From TrEMBL:
One of its GO terms (molecular function) is carbohydrate binding. The lineage of its organism: Bacteria, Pseudomonadati, Caldisericota/Cryosericota group, Candidatus Cryosericota, Candidatus Cryosericia. Belongs to the bacterial solute-binding protein 2 family. Its main location: other. It is found in: Cell envelope. Keywords: Signal. The keyword Lipoprotein does not apply. The keyword Signal applies. Residues 1-22 form the signal peptide. This is Sugar ABC transporter substrate-binding protein. PROSITE patterns: PROKAR_LIPOPROTEIN. It comes from Candidatus Cryosericum terrychapinii.
Amino acid sequence: MKRTSRAIVILLAAMLFVSVLAGCKTAAPVAVEKKLKIGLSLATLQEERWVRDKDRITKDCADQGIELLTQIANMDAAAQESQCENLFTQGINVLIIAAQDASAAATIVDKAHAAGVKVICYDRLVMDTVNDDVYISFDNVQVGVLQGTWLTKAVPKGNYAILSGAPTDNNAKLFKQGAMSIIQPLVDKGDIKIVADQAVVEWKPENALKIMENALTANKNNIQGILAPNDGTAGGCIQALAAQGLAGKVPITGQDAELAAAQRIVKGTQGMTVFKDTRILADAAVEAAKSMFGGYTLANATQTVNNNKVDVPSILLTPIAVTKDNIDVALIDSGYLKKADVYK
Ligand code: BGC
């Protein structure tokens, strides 16, 4: 609702309230302005970052008196749909969704639209729908570029194992696209040979562990570099390396700035991670929800990302590569992690 029309509604409601009071001495005060109610639907809490996202959104809403209803789908796309339907019937105005399945979630977004609920695609873009209202994430292609850049500097020549994230997650494609934009030219030159290339179903560390065990066996441990798409999968790979006495000897990437990854970076078993400050992401999503509810356009959604159907107005934050060299500044000084925990 525009400011002026909202003012008129408030004025009319106030006049009505006064006339009701005049005719009936015992009338209770009537709440005239509708309050924002946000639904938060997260695909998973498997990675530490999602717990941080949830906690920050919860705090932001509590601080500002916004009602928040949260649902976690535990990586079940069908459950996510029914949980969201339930949120619609509870009268949410805005849905903040991190989709389990990028395409399947189009149905959720379409149902939200039909119910008059605005949709914020949170971190993960919902594909194949004309109804995404806004996408708020990091520049996910750049995440991959940071990983690929670090890895090719650490290992300019040799055998690579390439792992990618869950095939149901659109981000996984973007991370890989970014990383391969750096790695592929070196493959074409003949400097790098890709000896394993596999997606990690559901981003599970145990699936990454198996992939890496098999890759090491198949290549008689002759692997010099590993592209791991996030810290969880890096953890699985490093476990496989450790079993062969190779932890710390094969450069490996990550993403998310998880505490365990930060500890591995200072110990030297993981080379890098990519820091995506979930505090900024969460704050941006709650701000966007408030604007949308107020009927304002999102002036800061200056970019667009195509979801196979339309260009979705987007806010893409900047990811930061973190190694031993800048871990204190990037993760500790920023208050994301505690020094005592990282250097435990
Ligand atoms: C997120 C990553 C996360 C992964 C697994 C991706 O969509 O962007 O931060 O590690 O999902 O949950």
